[in-house]
Amino acid sequence: MNAAARIADELFSQRAHAFARIHAGADSRALVANLDTQAQLIDDGERSYPVSIDDGQAQDNAWVCSPRTTYGAYATEEALRYAPALLRAPIRAAGRGLDRWLRGARIDRAVAINNWWLSTNLYPRWRIGCVQRLLQAALQRWPGHAVWLRSLNRDDHADWLEECERLGFLLIPSRQVYLFRDVAALAQRRHNLRIDLRLARKQPRRAGDGDIGGADYARIAWLYARLYMDRYSRCNPRYTEAFVRSWHRAGLLRLDGFRDEAGRLSCIAGVFAQGRTLTTPIVGYDTDQPQRLGLYRLLTATTFERAIAGGDAINFSAGAAGFKRLRGGQPSIEYSAVYARHLPAPTQRALGWLSALTRRAGVPIMRRFQL
């Protein structure tokens, strides 16, 4: 291993330990109001990773730690969003049945490795045998749980997925995410992105990472909730003021936004970074403000600016597909890899069925409708 790779591994482990100092042993609901889980660390012999541990008893858990919510309630919401009116009642009925079946199969009795309680978990560079070592360690500590790795896609994580499949993990598609490479070049080629960056440069009352603190944290949690909870889905994690404050002060979250004339934040983007990739788990704006202000365009522009300055890639997660495609985002199917060969037959059957259904039906739908 060369010096650069060693430094990257050390930085990854440092972030994992910063995560553990905040979350391990803490009441998860004080940090994410709709999340009942536990956090610990696990390692592959070279790096430490955060891991979430769930016993399957929590009700209405946020999807980032609940496979049942991800593939039950959240998937039903998404289906209803695009379904004709005549199909909505049967979809709701099917969703309730699916939820009962997944609950009975104890699909939420799970440990998720490299789970940072975010919509998109970023991974370090794959090392030979790292998945096998993580799997062995997890099975020794939690022999009655399925072992999950979320947020994997073939563009960024082909080696991770290949080892998972070789070891007998099932792959279950979850979303279509949008990846941005060479953002500086995209800014030259993509008219919409160029306009957004110009708009951000001209906008007054910029709030950079070092300008944010104190009362801003409560405002950021509120702005995030206005967009992700009130407009999108109650299945999303409801990050609290304490979460935003703790992550920002620990250096896990870098914040950029703009203020209104009264000095309050009107929009915010919170960036999480691993290696040379950025993602934005915290995105929010005052949805009562007129659309002509372009608040969503402004907050995403701050992340594009960061990527250009650092030469970084962006995983802009799912949603707002048309917006992201216009700015050069490349769609990529995201998978969860789950190992359950040691579990009772009903759980294995449920996961096998879920894998087959999402691969044969879910993926074509995501691609067909460019979700």
Q: How are the secondary structure elements laid out?
A:
Layout: H1 3-23, H2 28-31, E1 38-43, E2 48-55, H3 67-82, H4 85-104, E3 109-113, H5 130-141, E4 146-153, H6 158-167, E5 170-180, H7 183-189, H8 191-202, E6 206-207, H9 216-232, H10 241-249, E7 254-259, E8 265-274, E9 277-285, H11 295-310, E10 313-315, H12 321-326, E11 330-339, H13 345-368
Parallel strand pairs: 3-4, 9-10
Antiparallel strand pairs: 1-2, 2-3, 4-11, 5-10, 5-11, 6-7, 7-8, 8-9
Helix pairs in contact: 3-4, 7-8, 8-11, 9-10
Mean pLDDT: 95
Globally, the shape reads globular
Strand order of the largest sheet: 1-2-3-4-11-5-10-9-8-7-6
In N-to-C order, the SSE pattern is HHEEHHEHEHEHHEHHEEEHEHEH
Total of domains: 2
Question: Sheet with the most strands?
Answer: 11 strands, mixed
Q: Report how far apart the termini are.
A: 39 Å
Structural class: alpha+beta
Low-confidence stretches: none
Fraction in beta strands: 15-25%
Question: Could you give the count of β-strands?
Answer: 11
Quaternary state of this entry equals single chain
- Radius of gyration, in Å, reads 20 Å
Tally of contiguous helical segments: 13
- Residues in helix, %: 40-55%
